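Last lecture ended with a question: if I hand you only a sequence, what can you say about the shape of the protein? Today we answer it with a concrete record. The protein is DNA-3-methyladenine glycosylase II. Below, first the input exactly as provided, then the predicted structure, then a couple of comments.
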Amino acid sequence: MLDIDPSNSDSNSNEQKPTVSSRTTILLHQKHPAILALSEADHRLACLIRLVGELTLTPSASPFESLAMSIISQQLSTKAAGTIKARVKEIVPEFTPELVLAADENAIRQCGVSFPKIRYIRDLSMKVIAGDLRLDALHELDNEELLKQLTSVKGIGTWTAEMFMMFALCRQDIMSVGDAGLQRAARWLHQLEERKDGNYLGQIAPAWSPYRTFASLYLWRAVDMGFVDSGLSVEACLDSSVIVDET
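The predicted structure:
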């Protein structure tokens, strides 16, 4: 899970600019207003929500560090990325743009970070310092403008930017149409016929706005928990779960 086309047909052109998330963890449960709205809009998603149960989402305390670490983690396993990031934090304990630029590149390379990724992190640092990417004023940008600014940084593609917007900023209406796991889960959820373009989200995600981020969390969990590969529909998975719980 850990690289929306803003012109995609399921984007919300009337979206209001979001406010900055606090550090308060968002607890998603069946009585949460967003979950109630999603359940009403899509009965199959409602079944999945019942299957998965409660989920949490906590915004990042340091957007800059989150972005830099996302670059470091690209194309690495979770375990390898964790090891490398821990080493980098020993070299740069206080992870700020200024200190990243001041750090010895060879020392960071010895942590396991490739030279291209080091260049990407330095580019990110310089853009933040220059004000080209204003991480201190994210609330002033709508999703489309923020996506544009993030992807102007070397090494940050659309997928990485979307994951940052979802998990670090907790923006509630992001839909990553380029995420293969989400597309596969969407096809399973609604038992859709195969499409040449592979865009199953385009058929069903518009109904989830303005809470597409939250819907995505449940789709990813459907993959992680094995429902997508179970050979059963979401309704059958729910029935099986109820039977197990009652025995």
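Comments.
1. The first helix runs from residue 33 to 41.
2. Residues 177 and 241 are 29 Å apart (CA to CA).
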